[in-house]
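Researcher: Please predict.
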Amino acid sequence: MRIVFMGTPEFAVPSLRALIDAGYEVAGAFTQPDRPAGRGNKLAACPVKQLALEKGVPVFQFEKIRRREGREALEALKPDLVVTAAFGQILSQRILDIPPLGTLNVHASLLPAYRGAAPINWCIALGEKKAGVTTMFTDAGIDTGDMALSVETEIGELETAGELTARLSEMGAALLIETIRRIEAGNCPRVKQDEAKMSHQPMLSREDGLIDWTMSAEAIACRVRGFNPWPGTFTYLPDGGAMKLWLARAAGDAGQGRPGEVIEASAKKGLFIACGEGALEVLEMQAPGSKRMNAKAYLMGKPLPVGTIFSRERE
Protein backbone atom coordinates (compact mmCIF):
# COMPACT_ATOMS: atom_id res chain seq x y z
CA MET A 1 0.00 0.00 0.00
CA ARG A 2 1.32 3.42 -0.99
CA ILE A 3 0.67 5.99 1.75
CA VAL A 4 1.11 9.75 2.06
CA PHE A 5 1.38 11.04 5.61
CA MET A 6 0.27 14.47 6.82
CA GLY A 7 1.18 15.68 10.29
CA THR A 8 3.15 18.33 12.13
CA PRO A 9 3.73 18.17 15.93
CA GLU A 10 5.23 15.59 18.26
CA PHE A 11 1.87 13.82 18.61
CA ALA A 12 2.09 12.75 14.94
CA VAL A 13 5.64 11.37 15.09
CA PRO A 14 4.81 7.88 16.49
CA SER A 15 2.21 7.39 13.74
CA LEU A 16 4.68 8.18 10.98
CA ARG A 17 7.32 5.99 12.61
CA ALA A 18 4.82 3.13 12.95
CA LEU A 19 4.00 3.27 9.24
CA ILE A 20 7.67 3.12 8.32
CA ASP A 21 8.46 0.35 10.81
CA ALA A 22 5.48 -1.69 9.59
CA GLY A 23 6.97 -1.68 6.09
CA TYR A 24 4.43 0.51 4.35
CA GLU A 25 5.62 2.60 1.43
CA VAL A 26 5.45 6.19 2.68
CA ALA A 27 5.65 8.19 -0.53
CA GLY A 28 5.79 11.59 1.14
CA ALA A 29 5.20 13.57 4.30
CA PHE A 30 3.25 16.83 4.21
CA THR A 31 3.86 19.18 7.13
CA GLN A 32 3.29 22.78 8.04
CA PRO A 33 6.01 25.20 6.83
CA ASP A 34 8.95 25.87 9.14
CA ARG A 35 8.11 28.44 11.83
CA PRO A 36 10.27 30.78 13.94
CA ALA A 37 11.14 29.24 17.30
CA GLY A 38 13.40 29.79 20.28
CA ARG A 39 15.05 32.93 21.55
CA GLY A 40 16.76 33.55 18.25
CA ASN A 41 13.42 33.31 16.44
CA LYS A 42 15.07 31.18 13.77
CA LEU A 43 13.09 28.95 11.44
CA ALA A 44 12.77 25.44 12.87
CA ALA A 45 11.58 22.19 11.32
CA CYS A 46 8.59 20.55 12.97
CA PRO A 47 8.99 17.10 14.58
CA VAL A 48 7.35 15.25 11.65
CA LYS A 49 9.69 16.90 9.15
CA GLN A 50 12.70 15.94 11.25
CA LEU A 51 11.70 12.27 11.35
CA ALA A 52 10.80 12.20 7.66
CA LEU A 53 14.19 13.60 6.65
CA GLU A 54 15.92 11.13 8.98
CA LYS A 55 14.07 8.22 7.32
CA GLY A 56 14.50 9.47 3.77
CA VAL A 57 10.84 10.31 3.23
CA PRO A 58 10.29 13.25 0.83
CA VAL A 59 8.90 16.30 2.64
CA PHE A 60 6.32 18.73 1.23
CA GLN A 61 5.41 21.99 2.92
CA PHE A 62 2.58 24.21 1.75
CA GLU A 63 0.86 27.07 3.56
CA LYS A 64 -2.41 25.80 2.08
CA ILE A 65 -2.39 22.27 0.70
CA ARG A 66 -5.79 22.86 -0.88
CA ARG A 67 -4.23 25.32 -3.36
CA ARG A 68 -3.27 24.03 -6.79
CA GLU A 69 0.42 23.46 -6.07
CA GLY A 70 -0.37 21.37 -2.99
CA ARG A 71 -3.07 19.39 -4.74
CA GLU A 72 -0.85 18.68 -7.75
CA ALA A 73 2.01 17.54 -5.52
CA LEU A 74 -0.29 15.07 -3.80
CA GLU A 75 -1.74 13.82 -7.09
CA ALA A 76 1.78 13.20 -8.44
CA LEU A 77 2.52 10.87 -5.51
CA LYS A 78 -0.45 8.64 -6.42
CA PRO A 79 -1.24 7.50 -2.86
CA ASP A 80 -3.61 4.62 -2.20
CA LEU A 81 -4.31 6.07 1.25
CA VAL A 82 -3.62 9.37 3.00
CA VAL A 83 -3.02 9.30 6.76
CA THR A 84 -3.31 12.47 8.86
CA ALA A 85 -2.43 13.13 12.49
CA ALA A 86 -2.57 16.67 13.88
CA PHE A 87 -1.74 18.11 10.47
CA GLY A 88 -3.20 21.52 11.20
CA GLN A 89 -4.87 22.20 7.86
CA ILE A 90 -8.38 21.54 6.59
CA LEU A 91 -8.48 19.27 3.54
CA SER A 92 -10.76 20.22 0.67
CA GLN A 93 -13.03 17.69 -1.02
CA ARG A 94 -10.75 17.76 -4.08
CA ILE A 95 -7.85 16.66 -1.84
CA LEU A 96 -9.98 14.00 -0.16
CA ASP A 97 -10.98 12.58 -3.55
CA ILE A 98 -7.38 11.83 -4.57
CA PRO A 99 -6.58 8.62 -2.61
CA PRO A 100 -8.87 5.75 -3.70
CA LEU A 101 -8.92 4.28 -0.16
CA GLY A 102 -9.69 7.64 1.40
CA THR A 103 -8.03 9.65 4.15
CA LEU A 104 -7.60 8.13 7.60
CA ASN A 105 -7.20 10.51 10.54
CA VAL A 106 -5.77 9.74 13.99
CA HIS A 107 -7.82 11.95 16.33
CA ALA A 108 -6.97 12.28 20.01
CA SER A 109 -10.42 11.89 21.53
CA LEU A 110 -13.24 9.41 21.87
CA LEU A 111 -15.36 10.76 19.04
CA PRO A 112 -17.88 12.23 18.64
CA ALA A 113 -16.85 14.04 21.83
CA TYR A 114 -14.07 16.64 21.74
CA ARG A 115 -13.86 17.46 18.09
CA GLY A 116 -11.51 20.30 17.26
CA ALA A 117 -7.87 21.28 17.49
CA ALA A 118 -7.17 20.78 21.21
CA PRO A 119 -9.08 17.67 22.35
CA ILE A 120 -6.55 16.48 24.91
CA ASN A 121 -6.28 19.87 26.61
CA TRP A 122 -10.03 20.34 26.91
CA CYS A 123 -10.66 16.76 27.94
CA ILE A 124 -8.51 17.28 31.04
CA ALA A 125 -9.52 20.91 31.58
CA LEU A 126 -13.20 19.98 31.68
CA GLY A 127 -12.66 17.23 34.22
CA GLU A 128 -13.01 14.04 32.17
CA LYS A 129 -11.75 10.84 33.79
CA LYS A 130 -11.14 9.00 30.50
CA ALA A 131 -9.53 9.95 27.20
CA GLY A 132 -8.69 8.09 24.03
CA VAL A 133 -7.91 7.98 20.33
CA THR A 134 -10.20 7.36 17.37
CA THR A 135 -9.25 6.54 13.81
CA MET A 136 -11.75 8.04 11.40
CA PHE A 137 -12.31 8.46 7.68
CA THR A 138 -12.02 12.16 7.00
CA ASP A 139 -14.79 13.98 5.21
CA ALA A 140 -15.26 17.68 4.43
CA GLY A 141 -16.42 18.48 7.98
CA ILE A 142 -14.37 19.10 11.11
CA ASP A 143 -13.78 15.65 12.65
CA THR A 144 -17.21 14.52 11.43
CA GLY A 145 -16.25 11.49 9.32
CA ASP A 146 -17.13 7.85 9.94
CA MET A 147 -15.28 6.23 12.82
CA ALA A 148 -13.13 3.14 12.36
CA LEU A 149 -11.54 2.00 15.64
CA SER A 150 -11.01 3.57 19.05
CA VAL A 151 -9.07 2.92 22.25
CA GLU A 152 -9.52 4.54 25.65
CA THR A 153 -7.46 5.08 28.78
CA GLU A 154 -7.90 6.42 32.29
CA ILE A 155 -6.52 9.92 32.92
CA GLY A 156 -4.11 9.99 35.86
CA GLU A 157 -5.08 12.05 38.91
CA LEU A 158 -2.28 14.57 38.31
CA GLU A 159 -1.62 13.81 34.65
CA THR A 160 -0.99 16.87 32.51
CA ALA A 161 -1.94 17.44 28.89
CA GLY A 162 1.70 17.05 27.89
CA GLU A 163 1.98 13.69 29.61
CA LEU A 164 -1.33 12.43 28.24
CA THR A 165 -0.40 13.59 24.73
CA ALA A 166 2.74 11.46 24.84
CA ARG A 167 0.74 8.39 25.90
CA LEU A 168 -2.04 8.90 23.39
CA SER A 169 0.40 9.45 20.55
CA GLU A 170 1.80 5.93 21.04
CA MET A 171 -1.68 4.44 21.47
CA GLY A 172 -2.78 6.22 18.31
CA ALA A 173 0.15 4.85 16.33
CA ALA A 174 -0.71 1.27 17.30
CA LEU A 175 -4.39 1.88 16.52
CA LEU A 176 -3.45 3.32 13.13
CA ILE A 177 -1.58 0.16 12.09
CA GLU A 178 -4.45 -2.03 13.30
CA THR A 179 -6.91 0.08 11.30
CA ILE A 180 -4.88 -0.11 8.10
CA ARG A 181 -4.54 -3.87 8.44
CA ARG A 182 -8.30 -4.09 8.84
CA ILE A 183 -8.71 -1.97 5.69
CA GLU A 184 -6.38 -4.34 3.83
CA ALA A 185 -8.34 -7.34 5.09
CA GLY A 186 -11.61 -5.74 4.02
CA ASN A 187 -13.18 -5.85 7.48
CA CYS A 188 -12.57 -2.35 8.84
CA PRO A 189 -15.72 -0.92 10.45
CA ARG A 190 -17.22 2.42 9.39
CA VAL A 191 -19.56 3.81 12.01
CA LYS A 192 -21.36 7.11 11.60
CA GLN A 193 -20.94 9.52 14.47
CA ASP A 194 -23.91 10.22 16.72
CA GLU A 195 -24.40 13.97 16.40
CA ALA A 196 -26.45 13.98 19.59
CA LYS A 197 -23.29 13.10 21.51
CA MET A 198 -21.07 15.57 19.67
CA SER A 199 -19.00 18.24 21.41
CA HIS A 200 -16.56 20.69 19.86
CA GLN A 201 -14.05 22.78 21.75
CA PRO A 202 -12.25 25.88 20.45
CA MET A 203 -8.57 26.39 19.74
CA LEU A 204 -6.57 27.46 22.76
CA SER A 205 -5.18 30.95 23.28
CA ARG A 206 -2.94 32.37 25.97
CA GLU A 207 -5.93 34.14 27.50
CA ASP A 208 -7.51 30.77 28.28
CA GLY A 209 -4.81 30.27 30.89
CA LEU A 210 -5.80 33.27 33.03
CA ILE A 211 -7.22 31.82 36.24
CA ASP A 212 -10.70 32.76 37.38
CA TRP A 213 -10.55 32.29 41.14
CA THR A 214 -14.35 32.33 41.46
CA MET A 215 -14.38 28.87 39.87
CA SER A 216 -14.22 25.80 42.09
CA ALA A 217 -10.85 24.46 43.19
CA GLU A 218 -11.52 21.24 41.26
CA ALA A 219 -12.27 23.14 38.05
CA ILE A 220 -9.15 25.29 38.39
CA ALA A 221 -6.96 22.24 39.12
CA CYS A 222 -8.25 20.57 35.95
CA ARG A 223 -7.44 23.65 33.88
CA VAL A 224 -3.94 23.83 35.35
CA ARG A 225 -3.27 20.26 34.22
CA GLY A 226 -5.14 20.62 30.94
CA PHE A 227 -3.24 23.73 29.90
CA ASN A 228 0.20 22.34 30.83
CA PRO A 229 2.49 22.87 28.96
CA TRP A 230 0.59 25.30 26.73
CA PRO A 231 -0.88 27.88 27.07
CA GLY A 232 -0.11 27.46 30.77
CA THR A 233 -2.16 28.92 33.61
CA PHE A 234 -1.29 32.17 35.33
CA THR A 235 -2.55 34.79 37.76
CA TYR A 236 -1.44 38.25 38.76
CA LEU A 237 0.28 39.25 41.99
CA PRO A 238 -0.62 42.53 43.70
CA ASP A 239 2.48 44.15 42.14
CA GLY A 240 1.30 43.17 38.66
CA GLY A 241 3.75 40.31 38.14
CA ALA A 242 2.42 37.11 36.55
CA MET A 243 2.63 33.93 38.63
CA LYS A 244 2.45 30.71 36.61
CA LEU A 245 0.88 27.56 38.03
CA TRP A 246 2.18 24.29 36.56
CA LEU A 247 0.53 21.71 38.79
CA ALA A 248 -2.20 21.92 41.43
CA ARG A 249 -4.96 19.90 43.06
CA ALA A 250 -8.17 20.59 44.93
CA ALA A 251 -7.61 20.59 48.68
CA GLY A 252 -11.14 20.59 50.05
CA ASP A 253 -11.74 22.76 53.10
CA ALA A 254 -8.18 23.88 53.71
CA GLY A 255 -9.43 27.21 55.01
CA GLN A 256 -11.66 30.15 54.22
CA GLY A 257 -10.92 33.27 52.23
CA ARG A 258 -11.89 35.44 49.32
CA PRO A 259 -11.42 33.87 45.87
CA GLY A 260 -7.73 34.24 45.02
CA GLU A 261 -6.60 34.80 48.61
CA VAL A 262 -3.57 32.97 50.00
CA ILE A 263 -4.80 31.12 53.10
CA GLU A 264 -1.64 29.09 53.80
CA ALA A 265 1.92 29.59 52.60
CA SER A 266 4.73 27.74 54.31
CA ALA A 267 7.61 25.49 53.35
CA LYS A 268 6.18 22.84 55.66
CA LYS A 269 2.52 22.81 54.62
CA GLY A 270 2.67 24.31 51.13
CA LEU A 271 0.70 26.95 49.25
CA PHE A 272 -3.11 27.03 49.46
CA ILE A 273 -5.38 29.54 47.73
CA ALA A 274 -9.09 30.08 48.34
CA CYS A 275 -11.41 29.56 45.38
CA GLY A 276 -15.09 30.09 44.68
CA GLU A 277 -15.57 26.63 46.16
CA GLY A 278 -12.89 24.92 48.24
CA ALA A 279 -9.17 25.64 48.15
CA LEU A 280 -6.42 24.93 45.65
CA GLU A 281 -3.09 23.42 46.68
CA VAL A 282 -0.35 24.65 44.36
CA LEU A 283 2.24 21.93 43.79
CA GLU A 284 4.46 23.49 41.11
CA MET A 285 4.74 27.18 40.32
CA GLN A 286 6.88 29.78 38.64
CA ALA A 287 7.24 33.23 40.15
CA PRO A 288 8.13 36.25 37.98
CA GLY A 289 11.80 36.11 37.03
CA SER A 290 12.19 32.68 38.61
CA LYS A 291 12.34 29.12 37.35
CA ARG A 292 9.65 26.49 37.60
CA MET A 293 9.85 24.75 40.97
CA ASN A 294 8.05 22.88 43.73
CA ALA A 295 5.86 25.29 45.71
CA LYS A 296 7.26 24.23 49.08
CA ALA A 297 10.80 24.69 47.82
CA TYR A 298 9.93 28.16 46.56
CA LEU A 299 8.46 29.13 49.94
CA MET A 300 11.66 28.05 51.69
CA GLY A 301 13.50 30.90 49.99
CA LYS A 302 10.80 33.53 49.52
CA PRO A 303 7.83 33.98 51.86
CA LEU A 304 4.40 34.71 50.42
CA PRO A 305 2.24 36.47 53.02
CA VAL A 306 -1.08 34.94 54.01
CA GLY A 307 -3.79 37.30 52.82
CA THR A 308 -2.10 38.03 49.48
CA ILE A 309 -4.77 38.30 46.80
CA PHE A 310 -4.14 36.88 43.35
CA SER A 311 -6.09 38.65 40.64
CA ARG A 312 -7.38 38.31 37.08
CA GLU A 313 -6.30 41.88 36.43
CA ARG A 314 -2.82 43.34 36.23
CA GLU A 315 -2.80 46.12 38.85
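Model: The CA atoms of residues 182 and 188 lie 5 Å apart.
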